[in-house]
Design goal:
single chain; 2 domains; Mannitol-specific EII, Chain A; 240 residues
């Protein structure tokens, strides 16, 4: 639940970090924390917002390192490492969204999420996504955004999933490059161990492959889905 707190060991597992990483991030990157009764505690809601914003802004080398750690940390959830085939389906893709504003595109991708039959409370999800965007836009350079809820509640979904929407025209979404956004990948994770890993995986795909161009050119949901599957294969660690 969003009001949950972590101790130091629990936070390391949640963030997929090694010993010493949390202490360093507290010193260098303002990792939100409190002291209660002489011991450190970390509020999940504050950690979620901090971590997702940080992942979106990581440079390539540091993103690679974090992605490797999060891949190892989720092997029990995703033993085959690939997540696109597990979380996405062509039916979860709409390449012709008519959205023209940031508010309407968020409503439209939540409506798309409803069609997965995995979403239990669309109104609550939309509220949480809007709250997350108010903290900091999830738009990235190149015309893509990775919206996700501010808090990750297991009761919200029946299983984790992604949906992909492409708007007919660009939408102003506060992208760091100042351009409009037209691709939106909504992240909905029932298992909170997956959320940060999924975010890192998608950022790796966007940074290290030609997936943006392929999604722009896709003429059908099936083509967009296959492009994502192929792009993900190219960034997966070698099979053991």
């Amino acid at each position: 639940m969003s009001h949950r707190t972590f101790n130091l060991e629990e936070l390391r597992d949640y963030l997929h970090l090694a010993n010493g990483d949390v202490e360093r991030l507290m010193r260098e990157a303002d990792l939100p924390h409190e002291t209660r009764g002489g011991r450190l505690i970390f509020r999940r809601s504050a950690v979620d917002a901090w971590a997702s914003q940080r992942i979106l802004q990581l440079p390539e080398k540091r993103l690679d390192i974090y992605h490797e750690k999060s891949t190892r940390g989720t092997r029990d959830v995703l033993p085959q490492a690939a997540l696109i085939p597990e979380l996405l389906h062509p039916d979860y893709i709409d390449l012709n969204l008519k959205s023209k504003t940031s508010a309407s595109v968020l409503r439209d991708i939540v409506a798309l999420a409803e069609k997965t039959d995995r979403l239990l409370d669309p109104r609550e999800l939309l509220t949480s996504i809007v709250e997350r965007e108010k903290l900091c836009s999830t738009a990235l350079p190149g015309g893509v955004a990775l919206p996700h809820p501010r808090n990750h509640e297991p009761y919200r979904y029946e299983g984790s999933f992604l949906v992909l929407g492409r708007t007919i025209q660009g939408v102003p979404f506060s992208a760091p490059d100042g351009h409009h956004t037209h691709l939106f990948i909504l992240i909905c994770c029932q298992d909170d161990r997956l959320h940060l890993h999924v975010l890192a995986r998608l950022c790796v795909l966007l940074m290290k492959t030609d997936i943006l161009a392929r999604l722009d050119a896709a003429s059908s949901p099936e083509e967009a889905y296959n492009a994502l599957v192929e792009a993900e294969k190219s960034v997966l660690p070698p099979a053991r």
